[in-house]
Design brief:
The chain has 6 helices and 7 strands, in the order E-H-E-H-E-H-E-H-E-H-E-H-E. The protein is α/β, with parallel strands linked by helices. A 7-stranded parallel beta sheet has the order 3-2-1-4-5-6-7, with helices on both faces.
């Protein structure tokens, strides 16, 4: 397929931005979604402008925004071949170390927002026999002491498998991308020796690049220095 269309949520920074850049180099047209309109617009302009990249403001916790995002993508490119439900953020460990409001926003973004992205793009992915990818975490495979963030990523892992089972037989592939610690805006001072967002983007592109009969169900990627 020439010029397939990839939609990325959380595209304005970190893993989302790095994936958008890698996908553009691989020939994808892009729908870039996030809440940061200025950063999205600059990224879209740098990745080929209106013919190659569409910037759409989207709060993934709002169903109306998700519907509008998909409508804008179809109006511009007439199809969706792949969707990367990547929007999310973290929290400090400990049941007393973040406000309930922070937890609420994180759970809504990481879990409910991802589910809304799946729902909003479900029919278009089936129509295209496309590819759904979700950002999980190493913390979604292990229980991390006091980490509500870890709980959200366990939920995303379950969501990927639930979507895979529902989409079985449709030709749609589903991949959970589960990175270890990554240098992203999550950290004021990121630890040394961790993954770069580009490392995770290469994992995304590996999954996308497989032939249609190959579904890479999960990619767990850590820095060699990471013990956890």
């Amino acid at each position: 397929m020439s010029d397939p269309v990839l939609l990325v949520t959380g595209a304005s920074s970190g893993i989302g931005e790095a994936t958008a850049r890698a996908a553009a180099e691989a020939g994808y047209r892009l729908v870039l979604a996030a809440r940061s309109e200025d950063r999205l617009a600059a990224l879209a302009a740098g990745l080929g402008g209106p013919d190659r990249a569409l910037a759409v403001r989207c709060d993934v916790t709002e169903w109306g925004d998700q519907q509008a995002m998909v409508a804008a993508a179809l109006a511009r490119f007439e199809r969706l071949d792949a969707v990367f439900a990547n929007a999310g953020f973290g929290a400090r460990r400990g049941f007393l170390n973040e406000s309930p409001e922070h937890w609420r926003e994180m759970v809504l973004t990481n879990v409910y927002g991802a589910a809304l992205t799946v729902r909003a793009t479900f029919e278009e992915l089936r129509r295209a026999r496309g590819h759904l990818l979700l950002t999980g975490s190493v913390a979604g495979r292990k229980v991390v002491p006091g980490s509500v963030y870890s709980c959200t990523k366990h939920a995303v892992g379950a969501m990927a498998e639930a979507a895979r089972q529902e989409l079985h037989g449709s030709g749609v592939r589903v991949t959970l991308i589960a990175p270890g610690t990554v240098t992203t805006p999550f950290y004021d001072e990121p630890p040394r020796g961790v993954l770069d967002p580009g490392d995770v983007a290469r994992a995304v592109m590996f999954a996308l690049s497989q032939p249609p009969h190959v579904d890479v169900s999960e990619i767990l990627v850590r820095a060699t220095s990471q013990e956890f």
